[in-house]
Amino acid sequence: MAYDKELAAAIKAASLAARLCRGLCGFQKVQKALLQSDVRSKRGRNKSPVTVADYGSQALVSFVLQQEFPGEFSLVAEEDSIDLRKDGGGEIVERITKLVNESLTSDGSYGVSLSSEDVLKAIDSGKSEGGSQGRHWVLDPIDGTKGFVRGDQYAVALALLDRGNVVLGVLACPNLPLTSISVAHPHSPNNEVGCLFFAEVGRGTYMQLLDGSSTVKVQVSAVENPEEASFFESYESAHSMHDLSSLIAQKLGVKAAPIRMDSQVKYGALSRGDGAIYLRFPRNGYREKIWDHAAGSIVVTEAGGVVTDAAGKQLDFSKGKYLDLDTGIIVSNQKLMPLLFDAVRASLAEKAKPQP
Ligand SMILES: Nc1ncnc2c1ncn2[C@@H]1O[C@H](COP(=O)(O)O)[C@@H](O)[C@H]1OP(=O)(O)O
Ligand SMILES: [Mg+2]
Ligand SMILES: [Mg+2]
Ligand SMILES: [Mg+2]
Fold first, then answer.
1. Fewer Cβ atoms within 10 A, N terminus or C terminus of the chain?
2. Ligand 1 atom nearest 144 alpha carbon
């Protein structure tokens, strides 16, 4: 219907990018494990890691979308080529170009080989600022780079904004087990892994294997009693305040220990009912980016869930690269949300009180 062609292209682009990442760091191909030289620190104050796979994934998704939609094209994406163009970047650019070309050859649809400059240009076409007018693709080429480097969870997250609203989202999750993850088995190394979630506005959320087979419609958990609910939060305590989540969980009466996981895989797992709540409270001063929540939020809302900030407001993706938020992001099903919201408000008030 309205966005069918865009959704098909997004699934193709994210699947190819996931294949590129998997070749470097997957349970199936551990022999091709990430080399030390493949991981860099970004410039600036926030020296977050970036790898050849982050760049390769962004180049590939950008190239595929531009092939599928020649003409007007706008992409808001996490990475840029500034560090790659610096002296000494040549070798890493060659590695990225090789990875991108191997992925394109394995797919066979485009019959081209990209030069290093083509790859750098593809990465840089993600410089759009987004906004409330027109259509913009939104990409996190690897969401959860720290998880990727550790061999844990990560996602290729791609969404489309139309006049400021997220209208479709795809989350490729190469390390997510096909069956439910739980507190007891957060990693399930013996289980088959690799899922892709996709959602289009008004049409529900689906999960399939990364090869495109076995598509099923998914729904968030129907749990109404907080004592039976389990909750997700960041693996990294620097990304979200674990002490605040545990206070909220305690006030709510949640019994289970938190399931700690990297990236928007949390939204995917929640959309199929693996847990009932996701709590995210970044430390003061951190500004959330749209590419960290656009795909995940539509995957959850189309599966029947609710995603708001800590004041209960819907996330607004129309303001450019950043989300303008009150304090944090909370996600749950319709039934639990009022209780969760009360527990969040009470916990924030308690934390704000001066300590005796
Ligand atoms: N200091 C930070 N606080 C919160 N989130 C961060 C911080 N630094 C990076 N991130 C981003 O948070 C997301 C990971 O969230 P989670 O903690 O849920 O795994 C990623 O998008 C990561 O970026 P990146 O895409 O570079 O990995
Ligand atoms: Mg990053
Ligand atoms: Mg991210
Ligand atoms: Mg990223």
1. C
2. 27
**Nearest-CA neighbor of 230 among 208, 246, 212?**
246
Cβ(13)–Cβ(59) under 8 Å? no
Query: Residue 225 Cα, ligand 4 centroid: separation in angstroms?
Result: 35
With a 6 Å cutoff on the Cβ, whether 237 touches ligand 1 is: no
**Tokens linked to 320:** 């450019």
- Whole-angstrom distance, CA of residue 79 vs CA of residue 61: 12
pLDDT digits (tens, 9 = 90+) for 99-146: 999 999 999 999 999 999 999 999 999 999 999 999 999 999 999 999
The domains located in the chain, with CATH, are: 4-218 (3.30.540.10), 226-352 (3.40.190.80)
**What's this model's pTM, rounded to 2 decimal places?**
0.95
For residue 152, say whether it is annotated as part of any ligand binding site: no
Contact present, 241 and 288 (Cβ < 8 Å): no
Beta-ladder partners of 329: 280, 309
Q: Which protein residue's CA is at the shortest distance from atom 26 of ligand 1? A: 145
Name the pairing type of β-strands 205-209 and 216-218: antiparallel
Alpha carbon 351 to chain centroid distance? 29
Distance from CA of residue 217 to its chain's centroid? Answer: 20
